[in-house]
């Protein structure tokens, strides 16, 4: 699931260059993963102005990720 979602994630990131997309290796960044309560991967989190507005584990289709990005852009 991680490798499959990684391809989707990278394609959507390329379509939205004004948004910062970041990947975190939770084996290396164990403290960060624990502080964000990441228990399984892949795990997508969306922050807007430093506030967590979406957090969900699991893969998703490209269309769903595109919709989430659009919603995040519009969120106040």
Quick overview of this protein structure:
The chain has 76 residues and is of the alpha+beta class. The chain has 3 helices and 2 strands, in the order H-H-E-E-H. Strand 1 and strand 2 form a beta hairpin.
Write a concise keyword list for the protein shown above.
two-stranded antiparallel ribbon, alpha+beta, 17% strand, 2 strands, 43% helix, 76 residues, single chain
Any overview of this molecule?
With 76 residues, the protein is of the alpha+beta class. It contains three helices and two strands, in the order ααββα. It has a two-stranded antiparallel sheet with strand order 1-2. The longest helix is centred in the first third of the chain and has 14 residues, at 2-15. The mean pLDDT is 94.
Write the layout of secondary structure elements.
Elements: H1 2-15, H2 30-35, E1 43-48, E2 51-57, H3 62-74
Antiparallel strand pairs: 1-2
């Amino acid at each position: 699931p991680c490798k499959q979602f990684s391809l989707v994630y990278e394609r959507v990131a390329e379509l939205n260059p004004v948004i910062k997309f970041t990947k975190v290796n939770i084996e290396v960044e164990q403290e960060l993963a624990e502080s964000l309560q990441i228990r399984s991967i892949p795990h997508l989190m969306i922050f807007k102005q430093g506030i967590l507005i979406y957090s969900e584990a699991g893969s998703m289709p490209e269309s769903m990720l595109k919709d989430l990005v659009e919603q995040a852009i519009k969120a106040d």
